[in-house]
Amino acid sequence: xxxxxxxxxxxxxxxxxxxxxxxxxxxxxxxxxxxxxxxxxxxxxxxxxxxxxxxxxxxxxxxxxxxxxxxxxxxxxxxxxxxxxxxxxxxxxxxxxxxxxxxxxxxxxxxxxxxxxxxxxxxxxxxxxxxxxxxxxxxxxxxxxxxxxxxxxxxxxxxxxxxxxxxxxxxxxxxxxxxxxxxxxxxxxxxxxxxxxxxxxxxxxxxxxxxxxxxxxxxxxxxxxxxxxxxxxxxxxxxxxxxxxxxxxxxxxxxxxxxxxxxxxxxxxxxxxxxxxxxxxxxxxxxxxxxxxxxxxxxxxxxxxxxxxxxxxxxxxxxxxxxxxxxxxxxxxxxxxxxxxxxxxxxxx
Length: 349
Hints:
The structure is a single chain. By secondary structure, the protein is mostly helical. The protein has one domain (about 5-220, about 235-340). About 70% of the residues lie in helices and about 0% in strands. It contains 13 helices and no strands. The protein has helices at about 5-20, 25-45, 55-80, 90-95, 115-135, 145-160, 170-190, 195-215, 225-235, 240-260, 270-285, 285-295, 300-345. It is globular.
């Protein structure tokens, strides 16, 4: 079983491959991150933010601070690379500030849709936490209730996908059940057996490989961001809906694995890898655009493989540079600010 940081950087790599090759598993990886987000946000609220003098304000500012700097620098880098900002008005730039709703009118960085959903979740979570605590509700501490709410949400997500919905919908309603499952994992403190976790994950991997190969379902997995490659590999047919449902079911199969993964020790080097995943996720669209602008499907395979290798290397290198020179120092300031607020008069001991 891989460590938490290795797990996150590997899943960020799935997103890079999703946007750079015909294999489409990046959307599934992001939905798995939603489960992890539900777990960590709930855990941090109980252990940290709820002890602040103004917990709601502290929570919202801290989480916005965690997301916005990397998002903003990647948007700026994209415009510098593209050399133009046509189609993006001052009003559009102002809508980027709250993150919520920032992608509803278009964005040059499609991965930003998940940040939109994340920020929506933060507001929804803190609203439920405050209302429930204020009314004395006991269910907020019940992991079984959150897991039940998560199951209802996943059922709704399945209906949404089966009726033609996108796995990259920037609306919390489509994915709130995944966050609830993560909250339930924290609240219930469920620790499954390692054999069960590995076995279910292996079943999902084997089933996915079979569907990738099987002609009736492979068009649901083999398609790319390039329309030319899309037509070449999968024809003009629509992607089947039930591979999407299999990927959603695969998240549930991975829940026991996630429950064990988040409870593993994470040394400093592992945390560095995990933190590196976010800048890679946001930055990779820029070298990806360069790759598709220069790829030529009439040239030899080695030519395009060379471009693909440069693209992937640039995605991880650029993400590392952003992490070291932007994300890490800015997050250090955020940590100092948060620590000062937790120590201020009126905070819990």
